[in-house]
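Quick question, first post here. What does this chain look like in 3D?
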Amino acid sequence: MDSVTETAPRRARDHGNYEQLIARAREAGPLPTAVAHPCDASSLRGALDAAAAGLIVPVLVGPAARIGAVAEAEGLDLTGIELLDTPHSVASAARAVELVREGRATLLMKGSLHSDELLAAITSRDAGLRTGRRISHVFIMDVPSYPEPLFVTDAAVNIFPDLDAKRDIIQNAVDLHVGLGLGRPRVAILSAVETVTTSIPSTIDAAALCKMADRGQITGADLDGPLALDNAISPEAARIKGIVSPVAGRAQILVAPDLEAGNMLAKNLTFMAGADAAGIVLGTRVPVILTSRADTLKTRLASCAVAVLYAQAQLREPRLGG
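> Answer (accepted):
Ran it through. Tokens below.
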């Protein structure tokens, strides 16, 4: 039986992983969230929808007149919502980060400003939210043909990560998986092939990362790599290639060799396989909800739910994330 036939019966599965995360986050209770520059309909509506769902208590940070105009045009009610006026997007990002540093916000959420503007405020040496870890992004994907949530990292922040950056990228994703209560993850370090070869540098990085895990430099997960995508997620493909490991064929975290590969993988799953892709930035003092204008309501709520659950896990176990 090939891998296409093997997964076909599962294609009809409804997306259920997000509903579980959202329900758990709603039970845990909403967290105060600084929303940076929600000056278009999708970002403002996303924040208000998450508030209505009982996931966050938003503090809107941005030009008050622009936010008010968007709310009026879209028929959105801002009654009871705190709004801090700022002159422009750079100031919005800086003030939102400041709210976190002051302890007034437990989460940070991207509005309609560019991701680079928000990340610049987050990574500011004197006024940002840096930790000892490299900042990285994780897509938490609900793929109809896969039986459990599938993490893809890094597809949004680190363009060409070196070995040290990849170590932090992996540890951030592992801590998130554990913090969400999903258990010890199986991590596949991806390349084009599953054998180490000097002509493909990512295979050498993958082998080194696995040895780093053996030596305790990466903790809390089972790692294998290099693995090609097919033998990372298909038990049959792994069997045919003769790969025997706890990870091959059943990975839960896919580590891309660079941002281009990770971004294309995540978008391929979204637009060609019908997956939903919630997004979160890690390695900062608090989780950062990084949404896209193309996100569905369910995806936006899932991103908020993931951030809420992980923030509360960090309060219980401060070692997570740093």
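The chain has twelve helices and eleven strands.
Confidence is low (pLDDT under 50) at residues 1-13.
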